TrEMBL record:
Belongs to the ROK (NagC/XylR) family. It comes from the Bacteria. InterPro entries: ATPase_NBD, ROK, ROK_cs. PROSITE patterns: ROK. This is ROK family protein. It comes from Streptomyces luteolifulvus. Pfam families: ROK (PF00480).
Length: 317
């Protein structure tokens, strides 16, 4: 076993997490800061530097041979820049160059957060042992990533597998991305809740209008809440089936906050998948919940860093 470690950063609109991770995917050291998402770009960078500084202050830092970054997107791995939708101070921000400068020139691997979660699920989670997989994150947005022929497939800029912006309803709602009828516009948490409210769903006395509240109402049998989740499941099924037809995946892993709804989502999702994944070569496609939880971004960023090393100890990442 290789004794060296990799450093990992998981950068989102809420938190910036950092870790040192070994070749088995174990997190040995971790730290995090809140993301000052509404501040200017330099203030956000100072939070990243603080996380890296805490990692570097520990005794294990000297063994880190590379650093992986999973960031909210869009990212551009070819340019080393990030433009997270929910961090307006960062637009084409040269994150890779800045992180290299802070870490004394460690090799840095940048991927989008959906690709990072895919790397984690393939290395240690629900897609382990599958050579062709789609992993999805269904939460405030809908993101994802692909494993093809046993390897992570981030694409040239690190955004491949971004299933949230496949159009599944040609005459559907305009999506903020500029498209129309995107999976995200139908299946993200805020859009599940929006559609339920527009269709007449009434929140309970606590006034909670989150997708979680809609899921609870659906579990209790509220027909409007059930219908909103069924529509989301139909959109996800159409996107998953389109992906399977295109690149022959045999498993789709679904994580993120909306997936926590459990059977309220997965029962109609399995049913709808049967309606869309009809060709012979995609009929055995399975859909399963993600396993990696909140550490997926860090573990996936580490997997991407390990995969880039000449001795690539992380099997199959």
């Amino acid at each position: 076993m290789h004794t060296d470690l990799v450093a990992a950063l998981d950068i989102g609109g809420t938190k910036i997490a950092g870790a040192l991770v070994d070749g088995q995917g174990r997190i040995l050291v971790r730290t995090q800061r809140a993301t000052p998402a509404q501040e200017d770009g330099e203030t956000v960078m100072r939070a990243v530097e603080a996380v890296l500084g805490e990692l570097a202050a520990g005794p294990l830092w000297g063994r880190a041979t590379a650093l992986g970054i999973g960031s909210a997107g869009p990212v551009d791995a070819s340019a080393g820049t990030v433009s997270p939708v929910n961090v307006p101070g960062w637009r084409d921000y040269p994150l890779v160059r800045r992180v290299r400068a802070v870490t004394g020139g460690l090799p840095v691997e940048l991927i989008g957060d959906g690709v990072a979660i895919t790397a984690a699920e393939h290395w240690q989670g629900a897609a382990r042992g599958h050579d062709n997989a789609l992993c999805m994150v269904v939460s405030t947005g809908v993101g994802g990533g692909l494993v093809l022929n046993g390897r992570l497939h981030p694409g040239p800029t690190g955004n491949a597998g971004h299933i949230g912006h496949i159009s599944v309803d040609l005459d559907g709602d305009p999506c903020p991305c500029g498209g129309r009828g995107c999976v995200e516009r139908l299946a993200s948490g805020p859009n599940i809740a929006r559609r339920a409210i527009e269709a007449g769903w009434l929140p309970g006395p606590d006034g909670d209008t989150s997708a979680e509240a809609v899921a609870a109402a659906a579990r209790a049998g509220d027909p409007v809440a059930v219908a909103s989740f069924e529509r989301a499941a139909q959109a996800l099924a159409a996107g998953i089936a389109a992906t399977a037809n295109l690149v022959e995946i045999d498993i789709a892993v679904v994580g993120g906050g909306v997936a926590k709804a459990g059977d309220v989502l997965f029962t109609p999702l399995h049913k709808a998948l049967g309606d869309y994944a009809t060709l012979s070569f995609v009929q055995r496609l399975t859909v399963t919940p993600a396993q990696m939880g909140t550490d997926a971004g860090l573990v996936g960023a580490a997997a991407a860093a390990l995969a880039r090393r000449p001795d690539a100890t992380a099997a199959g990442v």
